[in-house]
Amino acid sequence: MSILVILEQQAGRWHRMSWETLAAGQQLAAALGEPVEAAVVGKAIGALANEAAAKKLAKVWAVEQDLLDSYTADGYTAALQQLIQKTQPKLVLFPHTYQVRDFAPKLATRFSQVLVSDAIAARLESGTLTLVRQFFQGKLSGNVRVGGAGPVFASLQAGAWRADALESGSAPVEVFAPVLDAEQIRQKPEAPFREAARAVDLTAAEIIVSVGRGVGEQSNLSVVEDLAQAFGAELAASRPICDAGWLPMERQVGSSGQTVAPKLYIAVGISGAIQHLVGMKGAKTVVAINKDSNAPIFEIADYGIVGDLFEVAPALAAEVRKAKGA
Amino acid sequence: MKIIVAIKQVPMRDSPLHPALSGKWIDEADLSFEINEPDAYALEEALQLKEKHGGEVVVLCAGPERAAQTIREALAKGADRAIHIEIDALVSLDTLGLAKLLAAAVTPEKPDLILTGLQSDDLGAGQTGVVMAELLGFPHSTIIMQVEVRDAGIRVKRELESGWFQHIEMPMPAVLAMQSGSNKLRYATLMGIKKAKSKEIHRVTPVELGGTASAVATIEKVYLPQKSKHTQIFEGDAKTAAAQLVEKLKFEARVI
Ligand SMILES: Cc1cc2nc3c(=O)[nH]c(=O)nc-3n(C[C@H](O)[C@H](O)[C@H](O)COP(=O)(O)OP(=O)(O)OC[C@H]3O[C@@H](n4cnc5c(N)ncnc54)[C@H](O)[C@@H]3O)c2cc1C
Ligand SMILES: Nc1ncnc2c1ncn2[C@@H]1O[C@H](COP(=O)(O)O)[C@@H](O)[C@H]1O
């Protein structure tokens, strides 16, 4: 009985959230007094498995098979089902990536279990595991308890555990070759692509003013544009603004868009859903302007103004101009 | 082509949220409800596919009586009929329990395609569609932006992280979890609203669908997130707050 951490790689490159999940696995293993193992899935992944083996782990499983070369939900589910049946872990941890969202619920169902998705914390009290996750896009938290006969499956939110807490070590690598049949894999994936070259590089911006759905209408954008101008900032946005076509997609910040780390990030009328936060929480200073004092954006903001952006943004623009002129 | 669209009724965006006395979920008494955002996009995609390829769009919703309102709105937008699984305590089900009910309701329909939203605004599990696909033995894909019908199958555009996309082909019947924002949503027309009144809503109970399984995963308690970071909040009128903020940005954070 152990903890199994599923690491993510694509075309031979790690998903950085893999290490956060591994750190969580190490910490829970220490608390439970159980060993922790990791698995990496793909074709010709020996080098990656060796890299993972330099962490403090009981074992690294190289789940290798030609049919696992590109990710498919059917292929990954079948492969990991076999590994879990062999190793019988108590707890299976995943990074909550887009790929994990796609197959982990299916895998858990194979064991009549329910994946606890996007968990932000795990608490152990007298041997019982409680997972904490968010509801209403971060506006509420909740404790979830998992029963059932099979292993507990949980995917962990980006940034909820720190990769720098990872302990080094030396683990044996074991190859696990699942039995897969090409017929079983119904999804036929094509090569990933990008829509268009990015004309705007937000990653180089020192100051970013970012606008969210709180702005209400496209014609109101000028209020925020003016604020950006006052700061000499690049303009960015949350997803709904780009979906609506009010700003081009290349200005979208978040898990589907750009990841930025400016000196100053000013979020105007943005609630602070995790998919937005992962794109900007590397900012040195975060300012939030929002009318809802419980908006999750305030959780990561250094400074905040609770108020109507249509009053606050023009006032702030005026004050910034004054301060710069002086 | 027969398309089933799973829609959920959720509290309106920006609803005030307070834990209920039981502590296990929010107090829903004074809230207004609407269709879950990505589900509206799933419905739009289904209606467009029907316009292109013909067939039928059936809306599927598990929820209390009040969900009938959201179902009617979907019918008014152009769905042909609906299945309403009447259940009061949705949160007492876990994803597996819910997906079992939905799958049981879907099975006799023999659909070509099932569209869900990629996640619900309230629970945010992001997995009901995937679990349904597994229970039904259908292939699936998630975070889908576009659907193209090709011979006996489909080719979908899937969103990957950081601005990447990918096309995937798979046979039908299939389950797709749709992303928000890829289409423009239509409004119900007056004609549509009128027509919706005579469209069929088939009501079924969980018992008729084989009963509800006891939950594997249970929510024990919900609460407002504990703040871990110290945020300096500036109050007062906009001008005063803005002036205080600029002062801090200049002399404390030194970013302007
Ligand atoms: C797989 C996936 C990928 C995603 N990728 C991204 C991504 O890359 N980037 C991204 O941003 N999102 C992404 N999202 C969406 C994300 O979950 C949120 O839905 C989105 O970030 C919400 O945008 P918002 O904060 O602008 O809108 P809302 O959540 O609607 O928030 C609007 C805010 O404005 C405030 N407000 C309203 N009126 C005013 C006013 N007059 N003055 C001041 N404040 C006001 C409200 O209090 C509220 O907090 C993704 C979601 C999924 C599931
Ligand atoms: N009670 C429900 N009735 C119908 N469809 C639902 C219900 N709950 C969830 N769904 C569908 O499953 C999707 C994902 O929900 P969730 O797994 O809760 O995040 C939603 O976008 C809906 O399409």
Summarize the structure.
By secondary structure, chain A is an alpha/beta fold. Chain A has 9 helices and 18 strands.
Oligomer: heterodimer
Biggest sheet of chain B: strands, sense, closure? 9 strands, mixed
What's the mean pLDDT score of chain B?
Answer: 96
Q: What's the number of extended β-strand segments of chain A?
A: 18
* Count of spatially separate domains of chain B: 2
Unique bound compounds: flavin-adenine dinucleotide, adenosine monophosphate
From the spread of the alpha carbons, the general shape of chain B counts as: globular
How many beta strands in the DSSP annotation of chain B?
A: 13
Q: Are there runs of chain A of 5+ residues with pLDDT below 50, and where? A: none
Largest sheet of chain A: 9 strands, mixed
Radius of gyration of chain A over all CA atoms, rounded: 22 Å
Largest interface: A-B, 95 and 76 residues
Task: Describe the 3D structure.
The complex is a heterodimer of chains A (326) and B (256). Helix content of chain A is 28%, strand content 27%. Chain A is elongated and about 65 Å long. In chain A, the strands form 3 sheets. Chain A has a 9-stranded mixed β-sheet, with helices on both faces. Chain A has a 5-stranded parallel β-sheet with strand order 15-14-16-17-18. A two-stranded antiparallel sheet of chain A has the order 2-3. In chain A, helix 3 (73-87) packs across helix 4 (98-110) and helix 5 runs parallel beside helix 9 (309-325). The model of chain A has no long low-confidence stretch (mean pLDDT 96). The N and C termini of chain A lie far apart (66 Å). Chain A is α/β, with parallel strands linked by helices and 326 residues long. In chain B, helix 2 (67-77) packs across helix 5 (190-196) and helix 3 crosses helix 4. Chain B has helices spanning 37-53, 67-77, 95-106, 128-136, 190-196, 238-251, and strands spanning 2-6, 9-11, 33-35, 56-63, 81-86, 113-117, 140-150, 153-159, 164-171, 174-178, 201-204, 217-223, 232-234. Chain B has 6 helices and 13 strands. The radius of gyration of chain B is 21 Å and the shape is globular. A 9-stranded mixed β-sheet of chain B has the order 9-8-7-10-6-1-4-5-11, sandwiched between helices. Chain B has a two-stranded antiparallel sheet with strand order 2-3. Chain B has 256 residues and is of the alpha/beta class. Chain B starts with a strand and ends in a 5-residue tail after the last helix. Chain B has 2 domains: 2-204, Rossmann fold; 226-256. The chains are: A alpha/beta (326), B alpha/beta (256). Chains A and B meet through helix 4, strand 7, strand 8, strand 9 and strand 12 of A and helix 3, helix 4, strand 7, strand 9 and strand 12 of B. Strand 18 of chain A pairs parallel with strand 13 (232-234) of chain B, so a sheet runs across the interface. The site of adenosine monophosphate has 24 residues of chain B, from helix 1, strand 4, helix 3, strand 6 and helix 4.
